[in-house]
Amino acid sequence: MTVIAALALAFSGGEDEGEPSGSSSPVPSVSSSAAASDLAKRVTLTPKDWGGTFVRDSPYQSTGLTWVVIDQDCKVTTESPVGALAALQRNAKEPGDTAFSYSAFIAYKEANSAKRGIARQREPLQRCPKMSDAGGKTQYDNVHEVAIPDLKGFDALVAEEGHISTSADGQKVDAEYTLLTGRKGQFVLQSFINRASGAEEQNRDDAVNALSLMLGRLKSS
After folding, report:
1. In what order do the strands lie in the sheet with 156-166?
2. Which pLDDT belongs to residue 105?
3. Is the peptide bond prior to 59 cis by the omega test (within 30 degrees of 0)?
4. Rounded to the nearest 5 degrees, what angle is found at the Cα of 192, between the Cα atoms of 186 and 198?
5. Enclosing H/E stretch for 216
6. Rounded to whole angstroms, what are the CA distances from 126 to 36, 142, 146, 189?
7. CB 156 within 8 A of CB 20
């Protein structure tokens, strides 16, 4: 079954809590948009990082400082993240549209701004088991938070999974997604992947590996 392309639910809803790492590994500090943009290019994943079968999706990447959030009516909308220096999202897919993924990176001016950024991830998961886009065509259900105890190294982590029942063009689909968001210092990292139902474990493994790879690149930058 063909699944729908990734719709970024980036940095929406919650508290800056989750699974703190206790890790003292240092990460770089940036104070300018230019330095933050350069770091984002090194940390954000390319298609081959997801696996040998993945290729660029279209559009491939976005540097816009506008991110998707969930409003009080559980509708997907957008806003500009406060205190952000730079952001980058790269989209990938498997040929035949059997999987869609993205990785995203945002650098804030300071850690407190990053805390507020990831703090907006969890709250909708407590009140919106169903979500939709502004036009009401893309439909998400069984949206919930999950625990990912094996994913270490972050100051805060929010893990979201759910089911996609209708695509942006109004067609019925049957797909599952995993969306992971982690904060480390002044940075917020994100990985997303969806496939047809039945691949939930593979989705979670791929999303965990992707976010771990991004964190490793951040620490070594």
Report:
1. 55-62, 84-93, 99-108, 187-196, 172-184, 156-166, 139-145, 131-132
2. 96
3. yes
4. 150
5. helix 200-220
6. 32, 11, 12, 21
7. yes
Nearest 5°: phi and psi at 24? -100, 10
Cβ atoms of 214 and 41 closer than 8 Å: no
Tens digits of residue pLDDT in 135-191: 888 999 999 999 998 899 999 999 999 999 999 888 999 999 999 999 999 999 999
**Would strands 76-79 and 67-70 be described as parallel, antiparallel, or unpaired?**
antiparallel
Tell whether the model's pLDDT for residue 15 goes beyond 90: no
92 is written with which tokens?
A: 């990938």
CA 102 → CA 25, 137, 159, distances in Å?
25, 21, 15
> Is the pLDDT reported for residue 214 higher than 60?
yes
